[in-house]
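F.,

This is the one I mentioned.
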C-alpha cells in the first residue's frame, strides 16, 4: 500500500478499513483479520495496526469480544458514513468551493462533471 506523507499511517489504515466496511468487503458482525495478518497485507508493523484498531474501537466501529477477537459493529456503516460526511463538509468542501470560485466553475458545470465521473465509474 502506498501511504501519503500528509497523514499518519495508522489513520490512513483506519480509512482503508472504513472503506472496506462501506464497500461491504467487511460486513457488520464479521470478525476482523488478526493484527499480524493485516500488518503483513499492508506491509506495516503490528503496532501500527494495533493503533488503528484502537482508534476504530474509540469510534465505535469495531468491538472486542473477549477471548474471540475483534468484530465489526452492527451500526458501523452508518457511523462511518456520518463521520466521513461531516469531515467532507467541514474540511474538503470549503477547498472545493474556493477553487470553484477561483476558476469560475458553476454548480451546473460541477454537476455535469460529477455525472460524467459517475458514469465512468460504473463501467
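My design for it:
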Amino acid at each position: 500500500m502506498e501511504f501519503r506523507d500528509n497523514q499518519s499511517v495508522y489513520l490512513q489504515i483506519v480509512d482503508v478499513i472504513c472503506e472496506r466496511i462501506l464497500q461491504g468487503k467487511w460486513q457488520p458482525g464479521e470478525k476482523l483479520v488478526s493484527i499480524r495478518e493485516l500488518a503483513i497485507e499492508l506491509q506495516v508493523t503490528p503496532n501500527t495496526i494495533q493503533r488503528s484498531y484502537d482508534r476504530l474501537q474509540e469510534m465505535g466501529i469495531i468491538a472486542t469480544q473477549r477471548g474471540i477477537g475483534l468484530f465489526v459493529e452492527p451500526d458501523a456503516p452508518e457511523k462511518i458514513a456520518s463521520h466521513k460526511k461531516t469531515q467532507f463538509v467541514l474540511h474538503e468542501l470549503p477547498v472545493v468551493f474556493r477553487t470553484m470560485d477561483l476558476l469560475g466553475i458553476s454548480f451546473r458545470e460541477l454537476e455535469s462533471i460529477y455525472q460524467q465521473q459517475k458514469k465512468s465509474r460504473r463501467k
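Residues 17 and 26 are 8 Å apart (CA to CA).

Talk soon.
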